[in-house]
Amino acid sequence: MKNMISGWTLIKLYTVFIYVWMFTPIVAVVILAFNPQQFGTFPMEGFSFKWFVKLSHNSTILDAFKNSLVLGSLTAVFSTAIGVPAAMAFIRYDFKGKEFLNTLLIAPIMIPEVVLGVALLLFIRWLQQPKSFVLLLVGHVVLTLPYVLLIVQARLVGIRKEYEEAAMSLGASPFQTFREITFPLLAPAVFAGMLFAFTISFDDVTATLFWATAQNQTVPVKIFGMLRNSISPEINALGAVMIVLTISIPLMAGYLSRRFAGKAGK
Amino acid sequence: MAQEKDPAFVKFQGIEKRFGKVVAVKKMDLDIPEGSFVTLLGPSGCGKTTLLRMLAGLENPTSGDIFIKGKRINDTPIHKRNLGMIFQNYALFPHKTIFDNVAFGLKYRDVPKANIREKVEKALETVRLPGVGNRMPSQLSGGQQQRIALARAIVIEPDVLLMDEPLSALDENLREDMRREIDNLQQELGVTTIFVTHDQREALSMSDKVVVMKDGFIQQEGVPEEVYNNSANHFVADFLGHSNFLNAVVEDRENDFLRVRLEDGSSALVTPSGDFASGEKAEIVIRAQKMKLEYSRNHNSEEKMNFFSGTVVDRSYMGGEVSYFVQLPGKQVLHVINFVKRSPYRRGDEVVITVDPYHCRLLKM
Fold this sequence. Notes:
The structure holds two protein chains of two kinds.
Chain A: H1 2-32, H2 50-57, H3 59-92, H4 98-106, H5 113-126, H6 133-158, H7 161-169, H8 174-203, H9 206-211, H10 219-229, H11 233-264
Chain B: E1 10-19, E2 22-32, E3 37-41, H1 48-56, E4 63-68, E5 71-72, E6 83-86, H2 98-107, H3 113-126, H4 142-154, E7 160-164, H5 172-189, E8 192-197, H6 200-206, E9 209-214, E10 217-222, H7 224-229, H8 234-239, E11 243-254, E12 257-262, E13 267-272, E14 281-287, E15 292-295, E16 306-317, E17 321-327, E18 333-339, E19 350-355, E20 360-364
Parallel strand pairs in B: 3-8, 3-9, 6-7, 7-8, 13-20
Antiparallel strand pairs in B: 1-2, 1-4, 4-5, 9-10, 11-12, 11-14, 12-13, 14-20, 15-19, 16-17, 16-19, 17-18
Helix pairs in contact in B: 2-3, 2-4, 3-4
């Protein structure tokens, strides 16, 4: 009996240790962002927002931010616009090569981003096109599409086909049925997929490093570049902002989709 | 003056449906008269739902034609067929209010706004749920949801009402009420109705015509009494109610009855269905409710009745009646259902089963 208790205690301690080990660096970044000193040391001497202020005056960072926001938003829109009809096709219809096509679209999740990054670059060179914002956007859509697909498909499976059949038997055409029944029931998943796509695009470093030109650097790529020159506390502030954004957006998505799902019922 | 009813308001002609190698419905012909309540009855996988879904336009027939009001509808898409469909799980739109659910079909029928309200309210009254228009489907019970589904289907004044096992998601007591309610509603509206079920009680109690199906074939069609009392074959007799089967060999004719010899050597009088030759092997069907039990010691032989003596091996009490299982000398066990008496028979009691030859029907093997 006594041994069992100590065994559980050990597991608890181990769990706590894992969490501490995982989150300490992140917490450190956030705390150091408020450190007024140039070089971060503990204990901190004072508390200030000056790095955040400095950050807000840094035009290259602001540009990168703007790039990231535009790229993330467009990625979300395109991924959803492609992902929703694709998910509909995979779940609601039978056609030849369905499994193969589905696997193909999900595949980017399983392929290392470096490989994906290089592959798209080689492809664009084969087409003899320069690197551009469009390339970056295409790349990000490829990266995020699997998430949108998986989320929307999972929800579609849960929406019984009878709803659509009932609507059509009542006189609604297939399109009217989609507009009136399927899409409203699917909306939470579409919304969640969109936010996931945005966050993943907003966050991505590895593949983006290959695709971004000097003009359309995203925030993570910018941070990566800044780290090569110096370790400015500005990066901590920027990191803190990024952390807040990338954690709060999926949380919000999850909350909203649960709320809407609750309203829509089963 | 009522118009002449169309005897083939809905017509299936040589209809067949294959799913890959599986044949769900085989070369079937079926006419459904205008205003009638027809039940497709059979075990799961018999093709009844597939037949219904082909009529609804949710499945395409592999071959054959479907007609409604004499018009071939094979190529008419589902939303132009003007059918009311009721599903097992109600399928009320969960994100729309009850009012919007019922009004849904009217939106696509050029009904003026003011009339929509009026029609929806009338439909809700018809299903005895007035005033629930503002609620969401999830706020209603299962039985209420199914009544709303009914309102939603009838408000569009469909040519045919299709119901796919609409009662099987409800619990026993509610099912009984809904059964009567659907039956009354159908009579009141006079709408041609096709009802799919695997529950024989639903089929027998509501229908003008029962179509018994198995393996994609129609086994028998007819009014409930005929299908029950004059079952066409072993399957129908076995599927409807509790039937006993005894193998027999035909001996000779005795007035309206046939004299047959059973496997244990005893003889019995039976009512033949069809022509039988002397020496032909056949099967006797006896309904469990048509047999009467008595103690062997009280038994007096009577003319023109069949008797089987045996031992009670099991019984189960079912409230108003008792099921007895009686083993005959030849080891065969007969299922007998009798009303509860003051002193029910117990296991091991020696009993005699009495049954009128009229209730012993001889079927071809």
